[in-house]
Design goal:
single chain, 246 residues, alpha/beta, Rossmann fold, six-stranded mixed sheet, four-stranded antiparallel sheet, 12 strands, 35% helix, 28% strand, globular, ATP-binding, ABC_transporter-like_ATP-bd, nucleotide-binding, FeS-cluster_ATPase_SufC
Length: 246
């Protein structure tokens, strides 16, 4: 689904990603850990084609096509979606109207998802205007669900929301990524950014990576890496991975 080769990225004349390699196969969900400023969001922006970052070398292969120089809207048409860390407010546009404009999924299914996200009473409200943190996050999930992309990126979906919302969001991400289906039947793939990994208590992830100082310092089993980070911090986790490799 996604193949990243030797990717280096700058943001504001600063090198934030250095020779990143990452493969995510069809039906897989990967989680990316990392401290603040490690470059996690910059990686998502590079995959999406956000002009706020500049790819200076490497390849981004999506569904067999090198999309490195492709504009953002073309990447979205190919099947890339994103759940933003800080969802924008859109005064004057109703959430229900926006969902109809996105329109890649059956309206009945979108309505059903709105109900399960406790957002059915929000469809006549301006997008994210006056929403709490958890409501804005759930609104983003609903918008991405309506878009129905093949590859979905989630930028810290468990940040700034209460425990109940984290559980609800985690279960809905599982649904969006076909995790309720058999592995052979899964077609969706995803990349989830998280700082502490609490959301992993409520969703199924295949592989984890730690981004540290602009490089992927280690990879492995999601809950093992999360537990190492909680117990020893990021530096201790990386040292443990290096010891295991040696």
């Amino acid at each position: 689904m996604l193949e990243i080769n030797n990717l280096s990225v700058e943001a504001g004349d600063k090198l934030v990603l250095k020779d990143i390699d990452l493969d995510i196969h069809e039906g897989e969900a990967h989680v990316l850990f990392g401290p603040n400023g490690a470059g996690k969001s910059s990686l998502l922006k590079a995959i999406l084609g956000d002009p706020g970052v500049e790819v200076i070398s490497g390849e981004i292969i999506f569904k067999g096509k090198n999309i490195k120089d492709m504009p953002m809207h073309e990447r979205v048409k190919l099947g890339i979606g994103i759940d933003f860390q800080h969802p924008p407010r859109v005064p004057g546009v109703k959430l229900g109207e926006l969902l109809e404009l996105i329109g890649d999924r059956d309206k009945g299914k979108v309505k059903e998802m709105a109900v399960t996200l406790d957002l059915d009473d929000f469809l006549d409200r301006d997008v994210n205007v006056g929403f709490s943190g958890g409501e804005s996050k759930r609104s983003e999930i609903l918008q991405v669900y309506a878009q129905n992309p093949d590859f979905i990126m989630f930028d810290e979906p468990d940040s700034g929301v209460d425990v109940e919302s984290v559980e609800l969001i985690g279960k809905k991400i599982n649904k969006m990524l076909d995790k309720e289906k058999k592995p052979s039947e899964r077609k969706k793939s995803g990349l989830i950014i998280t700082h502490l990994g609490y959301i992993l208590n409520f969703m199924d992830v295949d592989r984890a990576h730690v981004l540290y100082d602009g490089i992927i310092a280690c990879s492995g089993r999601p809950k093992e890496i999360r537990d190492q980070i909680i117990e020893n911090g990021y530096q201790g986790c990386i040292e443990c991975c290096q010891m295991e490799r040696s």
